[in-house]
Write a structure and sequence with these properties.
Structural class: alpha/beta
Oligomer: single chain
Number of helices: 14
Largest sheet: 7 strands, mixed
Order of helices and strands: EHEHEHEHEHEHHEHHHHHHH
Shape: globular
Distance between the termini: 65 Å
Strand order of the largest sheet: 2-1-3-4-5-6-7
Number of strands: 7
Strand content: 5-15%
Length: 311
């Protein structure tokens, strides 16, 4: 079928390549002149035959908001907009309602697969009216992995809601691997961590694609000497925790993994300065100056020798 693709970055560009390889006609638009087929949204819409299908693959937030708003003024009844970015599901519900008022279908598509999706396929979690999903099903069939990986999760909003929860779980899984790695690195047994991670990939209950990627990363950078511990978050983890609060669902692991990312960005924690000050005030525990360096184990050993039980 024919599709307009807005956003030709790492994900959008690879998706276009996969779709064209499957025989679809794709008209691409991007702010970067070097990678686009047309020079404007107006030209993209004009290049498509009705009923049109347009996939929006731009960053969530204002870029998606502006793009969808512009498309609503250019498309007509019977056309379909697919938002494949990591949009907040509440925004997708609102955009779907605005599209419906004009007779335009709206499908929110949570997409997972990253840069590997070009060859491996993309897992797709979509929300929308059945008739709108059916119009663009050939696109989904060509993007998904051969064995499956597609789900129509429900009405508009359900796709991005499902992807939000998916990404929250991803936070927890990644951080669990990270904590296990650090424990292996700090123990006294001089464990060959790279070999252990490689062994875990075969037959164990913790094997996964994420573990495969960790093994790949370690093979490229043994000891992870080339990376810093700074870790950003792109929004989905926060939304997942917010949703857990709204529904009173205990999300201990995912919440902790999100907060760990916040901690990774602190050169020096104000909260931990308060803890050090309070321990000094009530127990006389030594306060480390900013110019001093001492491990937690060294600190506890010193205080134990002085007869102090660390609190």
């Amino acid at each position: 079928m024919q599709l307009g693709m807005i956003g030709l970055g790492k994900m959008g560009g690879n998706m276009v390549t996969r779709l064209r390889g499957a025989g679809h006609e794709v008209v691409g638009f991007d702010r970067n002149p070097g990678s686009r087929d047309v020079d404007s949204l107006e030209a993209l819409v004009a290049a498509l035959s009705a009923p049109r299908a347009v996939w929006v693959m731009v960053p969530a937030g204002d870029p998606t908001e502006q793009t969808v708003t512009d498309l609503l003024g250019l498309l007509g009844a019977g056309d379909v907009i697919i938002d494949g970015g990591n949009s907040y599901y509440v925004d997708s519900v609102r955009r779907g309602s605005a599209a419906a008022e004009r007779g335009i279908g709206f499908v929110d598509a949570g997409v997972s697969g990253g840069i590997w999706g070009l060859t491996e396929g993309y897992a797709l979690m979509v929300g929308g009216a059945p008739e709108d999903v059916a119009k663009v099903q050939p696109i989904f069939d060509s993007l998904k992995p051969a064995e499956d990986g597609f789900v129509h999760a429900g009405k508009v909003g359900a796709g991005h809601y499902t992807k939000m929860v998916h990404n929250g779980i991803e936070y927890g899984l990644m951080h669990s691997y990270a904590e296990g790695f650090e424990l292996l690195a700090k123990c006294e047994f001089d464990i060959p961590i790279q070999a252990v991670i490689e062994s875990w990939r075969h037959g164990t209950v913790v094997r996964s694609w994420l573990l495969d990627l960790l093994a790949k990363g370690l093979s490229e950078d043994p000891g992870l000497k080339k990376v810093s511990g700074y870790s950003a978050d792109s929004g989905e983890g926060r939304w997942t925790v917010q949703e857990a609060i709204r529904l009173s669902v205990p999300l201990n692991v995912i919440s902790a993994s999100l907060f760990a990312r916040f901690a990774s960005r602190q050169e020096d924690s104000e909260a931990m300065k308060v803890i050090a000050t309070l321990r000094n005030q009530f127990g006389g525990h030594a306060v480390k100056l900013e110019t001093e360096h001492e491990t937690g184990a060294e600190s506890e050993a010193r205080e134990a020798a002085q007869g102090e039980a660390p609190a």
